[in-house]
Amino acid sequence: MKRNWVVAMLVTGILLGRIPAFGRHSFAAEFDDTKPVKVKGTITAMRWSNPHAWIHIDVKEADGKVANYAFEMGGINQLYRSGWKKEDLPIGAEVTIDGYLSRTDPHVANSQTIFLADGRKLVSPVPGPTGRKPEGR
């Protein structure tokens, strides 16, 4: 009897381990697809982390004040598989980023595309507001 219980628990554990986890938040829960943003600025920080990497840039706004924006990106493995390298985004580099603003913070956004000063374009490896990957992917 005890052996049957152990076998049943092992089989259950194996089967449950094969089910994908759905812990990722949805785009719509955090970002507003009616608030696209495109800003140009200087990289002040780049945090390569999971589940999301973050890039921070200083942007000179219309009123002349400098605001620090934080853009959420995919995780490290997603970025590397999409061709991104840490060397592409050094502190002090000029970039233009487009994405969608946060529902709650006017200086937080989801990045869709990062345009580098040398003309290269890094496309986000995560879905945007429609659930589809951005163009160019």
The rough form would be described as elongated
CATH class placement:
Mainly Beta
Termini distance?
54 Å
Number of helical regions = 3
CATH superfamily label:
Nucleic acid-binding proteins
Number of domains: 1
Low-confidence stretches: 19-23, 132-137
Which CATH architecture?
Beta Barrel
Q: Strand pairing plus helix content: what structural class? A: alpha+beta
Please give the share of residues in helix.
Answer: 10-25%
CATH fold type: OB fold (Dihydrolipoamide Acetyltransferase, E2P)
Key structural traits:
OB fold (Dihydrolipoamide Acetyltransferase, E2P); five-stranded mixed beta barrel; disordered C terminus; alpha+beta; 3 helices; single chain; 137 residues
